[in-house]
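Dear colleagues,

For the upcoming journal club I promised to circulate an example of a predicted protein-ligand complex. I picked one with shikimate-3-phosphate because it came up in last month's discussion. The inputs are reproduced below in full, followed by the predicted structure.
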Amino acid sequence: MKLNKNLVLIGMMGSGKSSIGIILSKKLEFEFIDTDNKIEKLEKKTISEIFKKSGEKHFRNIEEMVSLKLLKSNNKVVALGGGGFINPNIRKYTQKNCISIWLDWKNETLINRIKNSKKRPLAMKMNNFELQKLIIKRSTIYNLSDYKINCDKLEKKQIVEKIIKLYENAQN
Ligand code: S3P
């Protein structure tokens, strides 16, 4: 089997990394991995429960361990959690060994999607202003990915097509 670099989707909560990742993985015939799902299975708790019972620091440690382990393979579509690429160790490994794509959306779109989401403990405690500040701060780091897609005016299908083109060009 040809060894293809992992395609890593990055971006804020609510940017569609998982839903787009699933479609992409089918088209590329790669396995799809969502790091948050792996963390939940490993810890036998939801992300919210992990944050509540063990704290964010514990979550970030597990996130680093799980993400680095998963990235050390090939032929995968990996959806990192919104904070994954913000971690310097995960980011450096991804930049060196994978092809990363940032799914970028207008702040307003992201805020509307993530506010009041019970599945997202970090966003739950923030108001719109704080969320906006987080998006702006993180965007400078997401910008260190290989490619960025402005998703706002695109259908899901078009986003997937764009990613496949970028990925195939980058592999050649
Ligand atoms: C987080 C994003 C979440 C999850 C956790 C923290 C973040 O993943 O990892 O709640 O710091 O942005 P999604 O981006 O898949 O929602």
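Two points we might discuss: The mean pLDDT is 96. Residues 13, 17, 36, 47, 81-83, 120-122 surround shikimate-3-phosphate (CB under 6 Å).

See you all on Thursday,
B. R.
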